[in-house]
């Protein structure tokens, strides 16, 4: 991802990070206020059910008691007993006795009209037949509920069933299980109540919050307009918004921190390593006398997602400092095998020199990595040269054991950029090296009168004394090449022959350089 995309993504994430938690808290405060209100409404509805059960229980008890009366029906005693039970039973308005399906007497006395027994709407489990709404004969006024047991019935004012205290604005309705409205407080709309009891036990119906409670025989609905909970929502918001603001600040902070980290050179390099954004270019190494291609140096490049290539000297120092270099070395090894397996198997005289970091040299951890990478490829270990700069040999003892082990495995070991560090002849003598690369800065002085121009023959002489092969690096002119040939330097690498190139070009270069003239 390039910088501008990272910045755009960070801004979008920061905006989302600011909006989402606050919006979530606003939503949560609404949900919590609704839940709280549902609980409260549920409580009212349950109380109505409990009240209805008590009222029915009282009426049932009165019916059972009158049923126990053994005297003559509709006698003065019977009527007095019925009256007494009516007065003592809070929910009961009137009690009556039926014979042959007609009302014969009631708690008010003998009846003359031919009042027929009502058809019950339902019968409870304890045998009480309930008619939800009926017009009383004796008392004018609103509809009453009739409960009948055997030949007696009681009339109950349905208001007794919803005789509970509710907050102003809370509508309460009690219905039968079949939806017949028995009693109501604060004027609920019967059609809405019918709709509500057919659905879930709590919820929101347009502008109404509701909760229902179901008892045996009854359903109670408590409802109130949504606007009633606005205060509660505001209170919840006061509690939750600071939390949302804190979360938003935290997320924005994280986004800023992550994007800064992502935008930092190290952050970018870490991602490049993780995404394996590296490729390898190969710079041919030629035999100076013949111009034959004898191999190449593998030179890593960081291919950015936008396709641009970053030179290694711009990221290798940071990779070394941060320890990412070992992962990069591993990727280079894998790429070399992937790119050049066929060429190396087909032509055993070709070698590829891989650059090792100081860590790779001091720990030797790279050797098993190479061994594993070469397994089942057919590439010979001697076709892989290992190049290390003088910095890799600072800890001479560990460097020596790595060099020894590398050579045991069959690799050639080359000292790179020779002459730019502090290596001395005696220092080099202690290391079983195979080749020495003369740094470009010395090659540049060839045929010039600079102060360092006299160093180059010394380096050549030193390498010969140590019986090391010599590779001259950075050969740019024919004069330099001629000089090197004259001084018996076998190999050269530089723009005079070829620049670093992608694998396919290197393969073609090698074939053409080796083709018979
Ligand atoms: N002006 C000029 N330059 C020439 C000429 N011939 C070769 N060069 C450049 O000199 C460098 C030679 O590689 P080096 O000394 O190992 O120096 C390398 C090496 O120390 C390091 N490097 C490259 N690849 C790797 C790698 O895979 N691992 C590690 N640890 N270091 C690497 O980065 C350094 C720079 O690599 P590059 O930028 O590819 O630069 C390469 C190459 O492109 C020439 O005739 N003229």
Automatic annotation (TrEMBL):
Reactions performed catalytically: 3',3'-c-di-GMP + H2O = 5'-phosphoguanylyl(3'->5')guanosine + H(+)
EC number annotated for this UniProt entry: 3.1.4.52
Pfam families: CSS-motif, EAL
Superkingdom of origin organism: Bacteria
Compartments in which it is found: Cell membrane
SUPFAM superfamilies assigned: EAL domain-like
Record key words, sorted: c-di-GMP, Cell membrane, Hydrolase, Membrane, Transmembrane, Transmembrane helix
Protein's UniProt keywords contain Secreted: no
GO MF term (any one): cyclic-guanylate-specific phosphodiesterase activity
Entry GO CC: plasma membrane
SMART domains: EAL
InterPro entries (UniProt xref): CSS-motif_dom (IPR024744), Cyclic-di-GMP_PDE-like (IPR050706), EAL_dom (IPR001633), EAL_sf (IPR035919)
Domain EAL residues, every copy: 262-514
Membrane topology per record: Multi-pass membrane protein
Main location: membrane
Enzyme class: hydrolase
Residues annotated as transmembrane: 6-31, 238-258
Protein name in the entry: cyclic-guanylate-specific phosphodiesterase
